Amino acid sequence: MHPRVQELIELLQLKPHPEGGFYAETFRSVETTTTPQGQRNLMTAIYFLLTHEHVSRFHIIESDELWFHHEGNDLSIHVLDDNGHTTLKLGSESPEARAQHLVPKKKIFGSTVDTPNGYALVSCVVAPGFDFADFRLCSKSELHEMYPRHTAVIEQLGC
Known about the structure:
Layout (H helix, E strand, L loop, with lengths): L2 H9 L3 E2 L5 E7 L3 E4 L2 E4 L2 E8 L4 E6 L2 E9 L2 E7 L2 E7 L9 E4 L4 E5 L6 E9 L7 E3 L2 H7 L4 H7 L2
Antiparallel strand pairs: 1-2, 2-5, 3-4, 5-12, 6-11, 6-13, 7-10, 7-12, 8-9, 8-11
């Protein structure tokens, strides 16, 4: 593992996330809004740390999620939807990478750091705010049935 990873885990007080990687909530708005799932905070933000070995498994949430790259290697955000498999590059190492990406609500997505021994520190801002009640990990069998042409990425990121 990259030496900076342990330093960031301690510095930012990150803990393991159920989807993979490490996180710490940094903001939860006091204001709330009504959603079909119930009352939710207007917005939340986290630090999220992924490594080549610690990926974000395919999951779905009920809100839009903005990703911002802070340091480390480029990150690939893998989205599965009606268009198939799309990869959004987050970072600054490659020409196609951007410092910010939006994952729209109700999309199946997961993330990888493709650089061996690499890591990426990002922030994720969710609006309406994140609630674990609105979070669901996706099984490999479910994903294979829905997206049979995308076996490799499903095997890598499915649960």
